[in-house]
Amino acid sequence: MNFRRKPYLTAAVSAVLTVSLLAGCGSNNASEGSTASGSPAANGDKPFKGKTLSVYIGSNSTSEYIRSQLPEFEEATGMKVDFQVFANEQLSQKLSVQMTAGSATPDVFTIRPLEETKLFEKNGWLQPLNDYASKDAAFDLADFSESSLSSATANGNLIGIPMLTEQQILYYRKDLLKEAGIEVPKTLDELKAAAEKLNDPDKGIYGFVARGQKGALVTQLSSFVFSEGGDFQNGDKATLNTPEFIKASALYVDLLKNYGPPGVLNMGWPQAMGVFAQGKAAFFTDTSTVYPNATDPDKSTIADQVGFAPFPSGSSGAKPYNITAWALSMNSQSKSKDEAWAFIQWVTGKDMVKKLQLHGTPGARTSVWNDPEGEAGFPQGYIPVIQESVKTAIGHDRPQVIKVGEARDVISEIIIKGLVGEDITAAAEKANVEFQKIIDNEKAK
Amino acid sequence: MKQKSKAALLSTSAWLIILIFSFPLLWMVLASFKTQAQIMSTDNLLIFKPTLKNYSAVFEQYNFMKYIGNSAVVALGSTLGSLLLGLPAAYAIARYKLQGLALTILVARIIPAITFLIPWFILFSGLKLVDTFTALILTHMLVGLPFIIWIMIPFFESLPQEIEEAALIDGCSKFKVFLRIVLPISGPGVITSSLMSIIFSWNNFLFSIILAGEKTKTLPVAIFNFISYSEVNWGGIMAAACIITLPIILIALVAQRYVVSGLAAGALKG
Amino acid sequence: MRTAWLDKNIKWVFTLPAVLFVILMMAFPIFYTVRISFFEWSMSAVTPPRWVGLDNYIELLNSERFWQSVKATLYFTVLALVVETVLGVAIALVLFREYKGKNIAKTLFLLPMVSTPVAMGLVWLLIYEPTIGAANMMLKWFGFKPLEWLGNVNQAIPSLAIIDIWQWTPMVCLIVMAGLSTLPKDPYESAEVDGASAWQKLIYITLPLVRPTIIVAMMLRLIDVLKTFDIIYATTQGGPGSASETLNIYTYMLGFQFFKLGSASSLLVIFFTIILIFTLLMIWIRKRLGA
Q1: pTM for the model
Q2: Which pick of A58, A206, A246, B3 has the fewest CB atoms within 10 Å?
């Protein structure tokens, strides 16, 4: 049984070589021949005629739009793109299997930087993009927000180009709040009071809904924890048993248990959003990017009554997360790296980011955010909330370890035990020990 | 009189059982013709204005025809392969009492399928066979083959041996006997075991998640992908579920005699 | 000449291709899995697998989550198997009689077991939906309190078992019916003469006679119930919390969500051993009680 060992160094060196070789081939290479418009080979000389590129993309608000724009890209570059969309878990799992086998496909794929960067980088699955990006003046890497780039960087290697940013915000029902004469909550205490007041299970209206599913809930719990002054860890020390963390967890449990719908333990964001979009909840907190599910009349019964508000403040102020949810990465084993870069550059170039933003997908480019046109794709009242959120935001929403999935499951236990009526403090102590084990294990290697 | 009421009671209870067991499938069909809003409202469960929107969405947006084709190719391919290997094997096991071999092949039924996934992926990548029908057919044969052998052994055992013996005395070779005499009268067994193999291949989810790509994606994976990242579209999911189960239900209805005996045959002598 | 050789070795010529195929397709994965179970490896292309001996096994046996998954597996298996057997035999005794439309009934009864499990998982997800699902509506009609079904730690496994029971009771039932149809007539006739009640006939004649068939049906179900994956993956993915995380689902999580290939493989080895023990136990029971 031989395991593939591809020394990382060689890959990096060969990448650098490829790039520098390319730099010498004039206008026929994508990275130089591209124009400010971001479309490779605008002069139409199809630099990649007859080549195919395989792309795996996570199913999110951008994927379908990008698919619709593909013909234009194929026309300009002459390559054929094999474009496949997967649900998150499936993508993660499919990527891991293919990379394990040292597969050269897919050439390009989306990763969730905070979830996968460390592991994928450690495993040598990702092609560093520093040289590609910095060689390409028109691409203008500096245009990306600092925080979005840092989340896609590991060991000094830029291993993905940010595609989609998100923040935790509060969704609420304008009509219900108006009827009850309640102001939009500005603090977590006010949120609790309002949820209590609006909770009316007999009428089928619950005060509050959010994720309660193992693993999935951790990211949405994070803003509660930050706003109470806590975090998952302090460097190499697990901090799940601090008073701040326990207070935030207790509040999260309290809201879901006493004012939430039944079956919350199985709710990831689609189910929780479903409850809100069917008009069954007054408040819902989750990531900003899922808003179309609430405002699209096809999917929502309360499309015209959706209000947006910044995440309420706790005892340490309002500290929602603000993260890069998706980034585009290149397979280090790819046989078509230049084609891959051309694709990444096309999707994350200024043109496409602007188009996506008009389509309602928040990107990571500062210039587009500052362009008044870039805001046109969003519902009224949404942009100010995002701008407000970003001011005081925290750049992560989950534990910062290699084995994120495992750590998320451990942290989830605190909330799950709380929801089934066990003691939260004891659960937090226990989770803290487990989480510390994960951190120590990773340090030892 | 007593007899009559007894009969009525019997048929009532029989049909009640059938109704209970059919309910989820009925529910699926009903929901597939409802809009999201109709599914969400709990007033009119049975009376509503049906819509075909879910079906058109499934076929237009998600290219389900292609996945149906893929599933069919894999199911038929793996069944043919399994028959080719399985029929002679089952015959030999039945005639020469090779119980040991039967057990070896049964091990394939016992091992959790997850065991195979990563090694297979590595193997098939090495052979450049990932996302090809070859890989899917070969892996699905590991499900179909034990089924075919399992069902055919008792079938061959139950055939009267006199004909074969007479043919042998007439100077036919054993191989010819199998080909000319045994196989032609094994129709029912072959149909039964093939149907089982087709059904179980059609329903297989785990192998395809890993080994199928866009070219060869089968229905179960497609329907799972259908629960997209951005919405729980119940109507669409139910329509997709109907589409995936319909062919099998048709097979079961048309060939019910065979399917029933298939599921029971392996058990009688087992 | 060639035919003579073929005839002499026909038992090998006929069986070898199938056996070789099975061994080739299985031996490599099994060997690979056992080997990796002594290593630690996160599927890395850079860091090769590290030999850790029995550490993966020790770590598993000391982890709460592992024991939780053993518990969940046994709970689910016993629950589904017992109900499927009892219900399957009971229903077989009803459906086996003569009544109007017997053939159609039998066919309709087949449908759950041939329906695609992944799709059925999704259908039941809708049925169990606490607010809009059919399950709670029924409870309301009959005046019961609504349940949380898959969303509740204590109700998840029974809810999943119901799906499995719905799908597979018909199979047990069919096998038992096939057994019933081969029963001899004489014992019943002499019982009739002795004036035995229907109940006595069932207990003293029918059940002992179909016992071997019931055991075979149970054995077939046991092997599959232990490995149930599709319906759990399509509905709860092991949730809520870890309530429905069976060994099979946990293996999948370890391998494909946490990338702990070593742990996942050692879990598979343990899992496989458990299945083997159960199967051998069933074979032994069958020998003692069966045919």
Answers
A1: 0.85
A2: B3
Closest partner residue to A97 among B118, B229, B232, by Cβ?
A: B118
Which segments of A210-302 are extended strands (E)?
A: 233-234, 237-238, 281-287
For residue A80, the tally of other CB atoms under 10 A from its CB is 16
CA B148 to chain centre: 12
pLDDT of residue B265: 56
Residue whose token pair is 């069933």: C282
Instruction: Give me the residue label for tokens 């029912």.
Output: B188
Identify which of A183, A150, A214, A140 has the alpha carbon closest to the alpha carbon of residue A367: A140
Cross-chain residue pair C94–B17, CB shorter than 8 Å: yes
> Are B230 and A269 in contact, with CB atoms under 8 Å apart?
no
d(CA B69, CA B51) in angstroms, rounded, equals 25
> Domain A52-159+323-390 - what CATH class?
alpha beta
Partner-chain contact A266 C240, CB within 8 Å: yes
Instruction: Give pLDDT tens digits for A91-105.
Output: 888 888 788 777 888
Share of residues in chain C with pLDDT > 90 (%):
36
- Cα–Cα distance, A346 to A352 (Å, whole number): 7
User: Smallest Cβ distance to C259: which of A96, A261, A278?
Assistant: A96
Pick the CATH number of A167-320+399-444 from 1.20.120.350, 3.40.80.10, 2.40.128.110, 3.40.190.10: 3.40.190.10
Residue of C nearest to B233 (CA): C126
The CA distance from A406 to the nearest CA of chain C, in Å, is 6
User: Peptide bond preceding A106: is omega within 30 degrees of 0, i.e. cis?
Assistant: yes
- The residues, ordered by sequence, that sit 6+ positions from C147 with a Cβ below 8 Å of its Cβ are C130, C135, C136, C139, C155
For residue B34, what are its two tokens?
């409802």
Architecture, CATH, for domain C61-289 = Orthogonal Bundle (1.10)
The answer to whether B220 touches B208, Cβ cutoff 8 Å, is yes
Residue A167: both structure tokens together: 């923040």
Q: What residue segments make up the domains of chain A, in order of their start?
A: 52-159+323-390, 167-320+399-444
- pLDDT at position C178 is 83
Provide the β-strand partners of residue A206: A281
pLDDT at A296 exceeding the cut of 90: no
State how far the Cα of C270 lies from the Cα of B89, in Å rounded to an integer. 31
Judge: C46–A212 Cβ closer than 8 Å, yes or no: no
Full DSSP string of A79-129: -EEEEEEE-HHHHHHHHHHHHHTT----SEEEE-HHHHHHHHHHTT-B---
B115 interfacial to chain C (CB closer than 8 Å): yes
Judging contacts by C-beta atoms under 8 Å, the chain C residues touching residue B202 are 116
C-alpha separations of C137 from A262, C129, C133, C145 in Å: 14, 10, 7, 10
User: What pLDDT, in 10s, does the model give residues A168-222?
Assistant: 999 999 999 999 999 999 999 999 999 999 999 988 899 999 999 998 999 999 9
* Phi–psi pair at C102, nearest 5 degrees: -55, -40
Using the predicted structure, report yes or no on whether residue A29 has a pLDDT greater than 90.
no
Tokens of residue B150, six digits: 């399992």
pLDDT tens column, A30-66: 333 333 344 444 445 678 888 889 999 987 768 888 9
Q: How far, in Å, CA of A214 to CA of A220, rounded?
A: 12
Say which range, A250-264, C76-90, C157-171, C191-205, has the weakest mean pLDDT: C191-205
Residues 250 through 269 of chain A touching chain C, CB cutoff 8 Å: 261-267
| DSSP summary character for residue C41 | -
pLDDT class for A27, splitting at 50, 70, 90?
very low
Cβ distance of C178 and B115 shorter than 8 Å: no
Name which of A222, A289, A321, A211 is nearest A255 in CA terms.
Answer: A211
Q: Provide, as residue numbers in chain C, all residues whose Cβ is less than 8 Å from the Cβ of A420.
A: 153, 241
Structure tokens at C172: 């047990």
